[in-house]
Amino acid sequence: MIRSMTAFGAARAESEAGTLSIEFRSVNSRFLDINMRLPDDLRMLEGMLREKLSHALKRGKIDVRVNYSRASTEALNAVEDSYLNEIAQQLQRARQVITDLAPPSFTDLLKACNAGNGHAFDMEVWTAMGSQAADEALQELQANREREGRRLADMMMECAADIQRIVGEVEQQLPSILEEHQQKLAEKLRDALEGASPGGLAQISGEELSARIAQETSLFAMRVDVAEELSRLRSHVGELHHLLGDGPPPGAGAGGTNSGITKSRSKSGSGSVGKRLDFLFQEMNREANTLGSKAAAISVTRAAIDLKLLIEQLREQAQNIE
User: Nearest-5° angle of CA 318, CA 321, CA 322?
Assistant: First the structure.
């Protein structure tokens, strides 16, 4: 399953103790990077959250935010005069040591006065709530990552179809390119012979001229032979379909010597798909460069440029795939 690294998931759990909410925000990253924002009272959830995320995700920068609110219990206790007098005496004694000590606020007095009122902070209850909310938020996160991953995969399939089309066009052009070169070569040989010795062409038999043209054409064909590069590109496109979860396209993967990638098909379930795609596009870009360096016609040069642009688009899309 192709998953994007950009997604969001959130969930909320409730109990008599209060409410707890968890948010997961994920963006692309080369590795799994988890950043926690937890209240001090819920620091005990960090290990559990990291374990769940590490088990479910392979790559991405994950921001985790946890908030909670405790349920209100009984009414606030009245602030007794004796309590205020005791606080005043303690503050006076403290100022004998720390002369600039600030007095407590009224809110602080109320919290301290009612500290014993209500339920104690039950770690087990809040841990269970955190686990429930984390599971639900992670489920939403994964669903969003898969939906976005499917969209990215569809865009990459369109690029792959264009690559397949360009490869087919170049294959069809090769015979005509060789034939055109052969005609130009024959004309150059005739012009050269006529220029060196007028009427010298009549002194050379047709068999000798044909043999010379065939020799030069054969050398030219060897220099501009891109059949292997085209075959490898087809094989790479087939591997791309395989990694994205689809079967190979018609005519893909039928040849080439791409053993390093095709052997990995048996292990497609292991490792990061995004990293494997990045390696695949490096290989495709290498074949496109070789195709451009061997180009014997402007049409092949343009095809090589178009291939490099499409491969770069694929690489950009793959940057966001887990």
Answer: 140
Q: Which residues contact 38 (CB under 8 A, 6 or more apart)?
A: 45, 46, 64, 66
pTM to 2 decimal places: 0.64
Nearest Cα residue to 64 out of 2, 129, 133, 13:
133
- 18 and 69 in contact (C-beta within 8 Å)? yes
- Where are the domains positioned within the chain? 7-73+122-147, 81-113, 149-318
Per-residue pLDDT of the chain (322 residues; tens, 9 = 90+): 789 999 999 999 999 889 999 999 999 998 999 999 999 889 999 999 999 999 999 989 999 999 999 876 544 556 677 878 888 888 888 888 888 888 888 777 766 665 555 445 688 999 999 999 999 999 999 999 999 999 999 999 999 999 999 999 988 888 887 777 666 666 666 666 566 555 555 555 556 656 666 666 565 555 657 788 889 999 999 999 999 876 556 555 444 444 444 444 434 444 578 889 999 999 999 999 988 887 777 888 999 999 999 999 999 998 889 8
CATH class of this structure's domain 7-73+122-147: alpha beta
Across-strand partners of 69?
A: 19
